[in-house]
Design goal:
Layout lengths: L1 E2 L2 H11 L7 E2 L6 H8 L6 H9 L1 E6 L8 H14 L3 E6 L5 H10 L4 E3 L13 E5 L5 H6 L2 E4 L17 E5 L6 H4 L12 E2 L3 E3 L13 H14 L8 H11 L1 H12 L4
Parallel strand pairs: 1-2, 3-4, 3-7, 4-6, 5-6, 7-8, 8-10
Antiparallel strand pairs: 9-10
């Protein structure tokens, strides 16, 4: 049996009683060479390209759904924005949660720009920007100061930031970011923040936008501030290169070929 993550393998062992010796993990493959080319393409909208050059951009990419934790991310961003007006939060993607997220941002007194619906030109005054779905998210990831990944449910995959040599702060949700940002198995408890290839943080609980920050939310705020101010650690080139090679399509194909060549 083949699965694409150690977390999924452990789930099969724990919940379905499958012998772990009969399970092999082969990660999803990425075309690293293609990603490296895509990230260098200039953003088509000059105003947005200028925004990434002028401001500290926190970026989240993916489908807007409740389990992605973006409502909590907005609450955290509000505190960061208070301390540093040069920070903006850009969200790339679509989904049924967008209208609620936009409403939450406004409840937090954050100015919101929606590229899909706003007819007004993009101004520097906006704090939160919804840019819609993008065929090439890599050009945005590459230009952002920080990649933010705050889901609170398992099986939310982090597959972009480590290809792009950009700092990442992610929740340590089960079977997700830990397998990309560290070499630590899920049977080991961590003290947060935990850093190897990016910051692993405690999984956030849902909370109302107007409520006081929890201890975990304050922890997120402080770590993100450090990253934006370039005060925290940064993963070494060697560590990033090794992780990229693990997910490179040529190396993944070799693992499949090895299995297919095994005698039945």
């Amino acid at each position: 049996m083949i699965t694409n993550s150690e977390g999924s393998k452990q789930d099969l062992v724990d919940n379905f009683g499958i012998d772990e010796k009969k399970i092999q993990v082969i990660v999803n493959a990425y075309d690293i060479e293609k990603i490296d080319a895509l990230k260098m393409i200039p953003i088509e909208d000059p105003a947005i390209e200028a925004l990434f050059s002028k401001y500290k951009i926190i970026l989240s990419v993916g489908r807007f759904s409740v389990e992605k934790g973006l409502a909590q991310a907005l609450k955290i961003f509000k505190e960061i924005r208070k301390a540093d007006p040069s920070v903006k939060y850009v969200l790339v993607g679509q989904g049924g949660e967008k209208s609620r997220l936009s409403s939450i941002a406004r409840q937090l007194s954050l100015s919101v720009y929606d590229k899909e619906t706003d007819s007004e030109p993009l101004l520097d005054d906006y704090d939160v920007l919804f840019l819609g779905f993008k065929n090439n998210p890599y050009q945005y990831c590459y230009r952002a100061r920080l990649f933010l990944f705050p889901p609170f449910l398992r099986e939310c995959r982090l597959g972009r930031s480590f290809h792009l040599w950009r700092q990442c702060v992610a929740s340590d949700c089960k079977s997700g970011p830990r397998e990309v940002l560290s070499n630590t198995s899920h049977d080991r408890g961590l003290t947060y923040p935990y850093f190897e290839l990016g910051y692993l943080m405690p999984v956030l609980n849902e909370s109302s936008p107007g409520s006081l920050l929890s201890a975990d939310e304050k922890n997120w705020v402080e770590v993100i501030k450090e990253v934006l101010e370039n005060k925290g650690p940064f993963p070494s080139d060697t560590a990033f290169r090794k992780k990229r090679e693990q997910f490179d399509k040529e190396n993944v194909v070799k693992k499949w070929e090895k299995i297919l060549d095994m005698p039945g």
